[in-house]
Amino acid sequence: MDNKQFRSYKELAQGIAYKKSQSNCYVELSELSKRMHTKLHMPPKPPLDEMTFSVKDCFDYPDRTPTFGIQQWKNTHPKPQNKALLISRLENAGGHLDGFTKCDQLAYSLVGNVFSASSDLESDLTQPINPLYLDRFCGGSSSGSAASVAERVVDFSIGVDTAGSVRVPASSCGTYGLRSTHGLINTDGCIPLAQTFDTIGLFTNSTALLQAVLEVVSAARVPNVNHIKKILIPEDSYALLDEDLASTCTDFADGLSNHWKIPMEEVSMGHLTSQEVADLFTRIQSRQIWENHGTWIEENSGALNSEVHDRLLKVKKLYDDSSKEDIKNDKMHRLKIRGELLKLLDFEYIVALPAIPQLAPKITATEEELNEFRQKSLRLNALSSLAGTPQIVAPCVSNETGNIYGGSFIGAPYDDGKLIKFLSV
User: Fold this and answer.
1) 334-344: pLDDT as tens digits
2) Mean pLDDT of 184-210
3) pLDDT (tens digit per residue) in 127-180
4) Is residue 109 within 8 Å of residue 308, measured between CB atoms?
5) Does pLDDT of 5 surpass 50?
6) For 119-138, how does the pLDDT look when each residue is reduced to its tens digit (9 = 90+)?
7) For the chain, which has fewer Cβ within 10 Å, the N-terminal or C-terminal residue?
8) Alpha-carbon gap, residue 51 to 397, rounded angstroms
9) Phi then psi dihedrals of residue 267, to 5 deg
10) How many CB atoms lie within 10 A of CB 362?
11) Which residues lie closer than 8 Å to 401 by C-beta, 6 or more apart?
12) Residue 104, C-beta contacts closer than 8 angstroms, at least 6 positions apart
């Protein structure tokens, strides 16, 4: 037999097996040969074979109403008949759905402190436990998804990121997290919050699994190659960060720079992480939230946590006060910001920009401390949300304190695979 006609050992073995069946020279094959023959004809294992996953509780599943972080939502909505496309793709790829995870009320918090729905696993209505820092919140709103991966009770989890709801929990709990390019992953069967920002996010404990899951759920081919030519460090934006976190994330980027032999360059991006940009995001998001859920919020306001309720009153005011001219101007401003970021990235560069300003708030944090965390986190996350770009989070350790933070990088649209490859060291 000419071995050159076979491209792999498996094909060679299959060729031998075929010749055996055609030669009519055997009375009986040995047990070893029979087992090899059976194995050769078995279908290949699916990419997520026997892996378990959890899903943020805002996705449709037959005969089960999601809570969307609040029991009253479940009480006032019918059971869906269809399964979210994302879940079907994961199950068809061999994944086993382990359950639905807690999230903040209406997925509207970056802290992870306002879940309030009954559970068949426990009697209390408290937030998930952060396995990395037991005395701190998980970050929100995909808090349960991040915690389930950090605790390693599942292999991976699905969240939704609007204003940082995947990036913040991943950074807080020490997991890998990906806010995918807006529109890359189908959101059919997912309750919308603000659909021009909403995008699917993934949590894992490795880049290899992150890539495998992304390939299953993405609507387009995501090449896993590193063609990144420069790491941009927005030094003025780092003024928002705790000193140890800033130093750790800079060291993390420097290590990756040395590994891939690509340069780092300091740039000025303070105007893109300003309060003005965060306010722009808030106005656009607020209009979409109220269009989607305003009626339900007014009819069920008594079920809302007081903190969420107060912030939703501001959402309503922003919606009511918006003129057509305001909406037009904000749309143009958003396009300008997106264009400026894409020009900076040039489809070859990435920006090293953490998603949280410090460790996640302590469970005992004051309202003032929680508000400061929200405001700074929104300034760090609004840019990628407005531009629709992918952003990845990876755990990194401080040489000074031993604290585990989330190093984070923004890439150009559809560079999700490049970002994963960049961190695969």
Assistant:
1) 999 999 999 99
2) 98
3) 899 999 999 999 999 999 999 999 999 999 999 999 999 999 999 999 999 999
4) yes
5) no
6) 655 545 588 999 999 999 99
7) N
8) 28
9) -135, 165
10) 13
11) 244
12) 69, 111, 112, 113, 114, 115, 140, 141, 143, 308
Residue 111 CA to residue 132 CA, distance in Å, equals 15
Contacts of 170 (CB under 8 A, 6+ apart): 139, 146, 176, 177, 203, 355, 393, 406
Non-local (6+) Cβ contacts of 1 within 8 A are: 12, 15, 16, 19
Burial of 416: CB neighbours in 10 Å, binned 0-12, 13-18, 19+: buried
Q: What average pLDDT score do residues 310-338 get?
A: 98
Does a cis peptide bond (omega within 30 degrees of 0) precede residue 141?
yes
pLDDT at 38: 63
H or E segment and range at residue 397:
strand 391-397
Tell me: the pLDDT tens digits for 255-283?
A: 999 999 999 999 999 999 999 999 999 99
3-state secondary structure of 29: coil
Q: What is the pTM of this model?
A: 0.90
What CA–CA distances, in Å, run from 379 to 27, 89, 306, 362, 386? Answer: 75, 34, 24, 20, 11
**pLDDT at residue 1 is higher than 70:** no
Tokens of 382: 């609004």
> In the predicted model, is pLDDT for residue 40 greater than 70?
no
Q: How far is CA 305 from CA 67, 70, 273, 296, 378, in A?
A: 14, 9, 29, 15, 20
Q: Position of tokens 């073995």?
A: 13
pLDDT tens-digit profile of 379-395? 999 999 999 999 999 99
Give me 266's structure tokens: 């300091």
Buried-state track 208-243, b at ≥16 Cβ within 10 A, e below 16: ebbbbbbebbbeeebebebebebbbbbeebbebbbe
User: Residue 251 in 3-state DSSP?
Assistant: helix
Task: List all residues 6 or more positions away from 103 whose beta carbon is below 8 Å from its beta carbon.
Answer: 56, 57, 58, 68, 69, 115, 140, 141, 142, 143, 144, 145, 159, 165
Strand partners, 157: 54, 203
Element (H, E) at 316: helix 306-320
Closest CA to 377 of 104, 111, 103, 108: 111
- Report how far apart, in Å, the C-alpha atoms of 4 and of each of 1, 8, 12, 23, 40 are: 9, 9, 9, 21, 20
